Amino acid sequence: MLPPWSIAAELSLEGAVQTALMGNRDLIAARFEVSKAEGRLRQSGLLPNPEIEFSGFSDFVSGGSGEGEFTIGLHQAFPLTSRLSLSREVSRVGVAEALREVRNHERLLIAKVQGLYVRELAARRRESAARQARADAGELARLSGERLAVGQGSPAESALAKVDEQRWLTSATAAATEAESIRLELKTALGLSAKAPLELIQSLESAVETLRGRAARSRPSYRPDVELALLALDRAGAEVRLARAGAWEGVRIGVEYLQDRGMDAPEGIDTGHFLGVKVSLPLPVWDRKAGEIDASEAEHEQRAARVRALELEVANSIAASRRRADLLDEQWRVFGRETQPVIQVAEQEMAQGFKDGRVEARDLLLVRAQNAGLRAESADILGNLALALIELEAAAGTHPAMAAPYLEEKSLHRRKKS
Q1: Is 296 exposed, middle or buried (0-12, 13-18, 19+ CB in 10 A)?
Q2: DSSP for 77-93, written as a single string
Q3: What pLDDT, on a 0 to 100 scale, did the predictor assign at position 404?
Q4: Is residue 400 predicted with pLDDT exceeding 80?
Q5: 72 backbone dihedrals φ, ψ, rounded to 5°
Q6: d(CA 391, CA 311)
Q7: What DSSP state is assigned to residue 62?
Q8: How far apart are CA 346 and CA 365, in angstroms?
Q9: Average pLDDT across the chain, whole number
Q10: Residue 280: helix, strand or coil by DSSP?
């Protein structure tokens, strides 16, 4: 039986995001990293297993009188430092890192899905503009043919209109091909098969309004990859302390029982029983882990430098994305306020002039071609605006789907502390 998300047919922008978070195959595989890290946490910080030793000696090889001894011992190694707790601390940081890696995967996936969604909408919009231009050119070719039949116009007008019609057909086909290619890529990101039905129910304008509204309400917070870098810095600090603690490997304590059989003249063979304690203490004389400590300290400094670099990169990325979104937003408003009205009036006047015989077909074709090009350009402006808003949201890590996991983890930590 197919999972629910594999039969999805109609998706809004947010619906596509939620479908991807549930069904993306790479994300599902990435979430197992958390389980692996939790397994390593359960394994860390444990004492080594105790050891049992047996040994025995006898003089039967030399044909003696049966003298010999038998020893059995139970030994356990104990750390002299906090090495086990530090090891557990490193593994605990590993679990938090795995969670942040999954969330960062989600952040990037959300941006990818939203980008594919609006890119397909923009391609469909360009296709629609090209098909409308083709229909206008076809109508003009028909009118030019009618005028030519009654002795008006020229064969060049009809030929130009037919060529323009085919040019716009090519443009529409190219836009439709691009949209289908993007849709297949979107289905992969959503976890859907290539044959699964999918319809994008939100318009490009509506998607822009959704993204613009979220950008106005959201406040930047730490991105998962920044938190991941901070956790890596914490891990490096714990590894430095672990390397220092590793200079003392630990003390080995054991309890031994000894049975001794020896000749006690004149009574004969006598058996003695002994119980003792054995302690082994390694001394850090030759290997003090100095090289390992130096390497861990250098790793700590390197990760601190990476945190500073990433924080600057994120801040500049947010500023650049916001600036690009503002510029494209103003460009779109100018198009709607100034360019679009001029396009509509000019095309209407030229069409009426052509019907009245005051405008040549060639001039009308030129105006319509320019207008169709501007309409296709408007689709690019609106699509780029949507992509800029998506980039801003991804740079700031402010998508609503990114907030819930953090709250859940914080409440989990509070429960553990209580």
Answers
A1: buried
A2: EE-SSSHHHHHHHHHHH
A3: 57
A4: yes
A5: -135, 135
A6: 17
A7: G
A8: 12
A9: 82
A10: strand
